[in-house]
Write a structure and sequence with these properties.
The protein is of the alpha/beta class. The chain is built from 20 helices and 18 strands. It has a 7-stranded mixed beta sheet. Strands 1, 8, 9, 10 and 11 form a 5-stranded antiparallel beta sheet that branches. Strand 5 and strand 6 form a beta hairpin. Helix 13 packs parallel to helix 15 and helix 18 packs antiparallel against helix 19.
């Protein structure tokens, strides 16, 4: 590759962060198309339901404290493709309807650095109803600088000290993707790790993603006394590292901490944060740590230092909830930076139930196993895991062929449960450009079960959404129409099938029979 001369930077100021910002600003929501940037693990229905339980518990706690009038504002940082917000709001509306109790109103604010993302959310049909109801608002937010939130839909600006209810913050795969400091601890001293960057020539014609992938890093240590000065705001945690660590490279979330402090100042009553990331909260995980390696997935990410975030806010009176067991893929936490956090019983119980006992990380670990065993699963096992995952579309797509092969031996109850699951999945599906056609696969399963009314609804949706539909869709729609005694519709569908495939023998025969 053609490379520029290598240059040395402070880690948080390395050009990789500018490229990262440009990548998201240029692509907008397209960054998540077909999982260019992975989003399933933090955006599936199961994690959405877990977060909804935590938020519902928080609203219950505020109601129990007599705070039911003022609106609770929730800010999601780096809301990305928008799937998580949708699943949270969908599940939360079900919980509130089911419970039927008085709760304070909630305003969910999706934020991102890239204006393209914010504009994309506003146009997304799945989010439209929440926007119209006044439950959802949108804003750009720069984690490094912004001190207020300018809401795009309502036109309101939230300024420091304005909110009377505590602020809720959701931060998924956020701290690992914003600039961090990198320090080295050796012999009780603190060093900045400057990074020497070798990168592709910006005029090489490579895409931003390709430029990020071409970056190579090497490190040099430089004594950094600022971390040891008494007025440094995070001196306590740095001092702990000096005492406890040796020959260790530590990613330090100074920008993330300052971001949370600025957000916290929007409310007079503190904040609570729900967060999930590749993040270590145990000090042992930072012992003798090597310099970090960039993880490439369209953009780049690093490990988040949850230990520092936990230590800083616990020293100020917060309660930080992490699992007792070790995480494998994603660490989910809840930090209550609130007056008397122990009073938030329902929030803490929700964490115990939806994260600590069995949570999103456990589910993802099981899914990796289930993905490999699909061809050995029976229909009841497929349905059970589907329910566990909140009727997840990805699981259905992965198992559709297996489901089809098992239908011949399925009993009526299994078929009814399959139909119910498909309809629930479809009503809670967040449409994104993907390699699969959910409406087609679901419609064909319903068609195989002779559930023609439901099959027709989904197959019609597939035909309307697909710029290049296949003749099979129209032929199946014709059969559905005949079974529903709609002969004129059947003729129309058969003609469309033949326009795509003039030699379709079954369509020709059926059209001739209809006269």
């Amino acid at each position: 590759m053609a490379a520029t001369d290598s240059q040395k930077y402070r880690f948080s100021e390395a050009p990789v962060w500018d490229l990262q910002r440009a990548y998201y600003e240029q692509l907008g929501l397209k960054a998540w198309n077909n999982d260019q940037v992975p989003q399933y693990i933090t955006s599936n229905p199961m994690i959405g339901a877990a977060y909804a339980e935590l938020i519902f518990g928080f609203l219950q706690d505020r109601a129990a404290q007599g705070e039911t009038e003022e609106t609770v504002t929730l800010v999601e940082l780096g809301a990305g493709a928008g799937r998580l917000a949708y699943h949270v709001l969908h599940e939360l509306s079900l919980l509130k309807s089911y419970a039927g109790i008085a709760l304070p109103p909630l305003r969910y604010v999706m934020t991102d650095l890239a204006l393209k993302n914010v504009e994309g959310w506003r146009r997304h049909p799945a989010l439209a109803a929440f926007i119209e109801q006044g439950i959802l608002d949108l804003a750009t937010f720069d984690a490094e600088h912004d001190t207020e939130l300018k809401l795009l839909v309502s036109g309101e600006t939230i300024v420091p000290g304005q909110l009377r209810q505590p602020l809720l913050v959701v931060a998924n795969y956020f701290f690992d993707a914003i600039p961090q400091e990198l320090i080295y601890i050796g012999e009780g001293l603190v060093y900045d790790c400057d990074v020497v960057v070798s990168q592709a020539d910006p005029d090489s014609g490579l895409t931003l993603s390709e430029q990020l992938k071409q970056i190579t890093l090497s490190y040099e240590h430089r004594r950094a006394q600022r971390y040891e000065e008494d007025h440094y705001p995070y001196r306590d945690v740095i001092s702990l590292y000096q005492r406890e660590l040796e020959d260790s490279h530590v990613l330090f979330p100074e920008i993330g901490l300052r971001c949370l402090e600025r957000l916290g100042r929007l409310s007079r009553a503190g904040f609570a944060m729900i967060t999930a990331d590749k993040g270590d909260h145990r000090l042992d995980n930072w012992r003798f740590a090597e310099p970090p390696q960039l993880v490439h997935h369209g953009s780049i990410s690093l490990t988040a230092n949850y230990h520092a975030i936990q230590h800083v806010f616990e020293s100020r009176g917060a309660e930080a909830l992490f699992t007792d067991h070790h995480y494998k893929n994603i660490n989910v936490a809840c930090i209550l930076m609130l007056e008397s956090p122990k009073r938030y019983v329902n929030t803490r119980l929700a964490y115990r139930k939806s994260v600590a006992r069995f949570g999103p990380d456990d589910f993802f670990s099981l899914k990796l196993l289930a993905d490999r065993e699909i061809e050995t699963l029976r229909l009841q096992q497929i349905l059970a895991f589907w329910r566990l995952g909140g009727y997840d579309a990805e699981w259905f797509i992965q198992t559709a062929k297996r489901i089809s092969s098992l239908l011949e031996d399925a009993n009526d109850e299994e078929k009814l449960d399959l139909r119910s699951g498909i309809l629930r999945m479809w009503t809670s599906f967040y449409i994104m450009p993907q390699r699969y056609d959910l409406a087609l696969d679901a419609g064909l399963i319903l068609f195989e079960m002779d559930m023609y009314e439901d099959a027709k609804t989904l197959l019609d949706a597939s035909a309307q959404a697909d710029d290049d539909p296949i003749s099979t869709v129209y032929f199946c729609l014709a059969i559905c129409s005949l079974e529903l005694e709609r002969e004129d519709e059947a003729r129309t569908y058969l003609q469309r099938a033949l326009a795509l495939e003039p030699d379709h023998e079954e369509a020709l025969t059926l059209l001739e029979a209809l006269g």
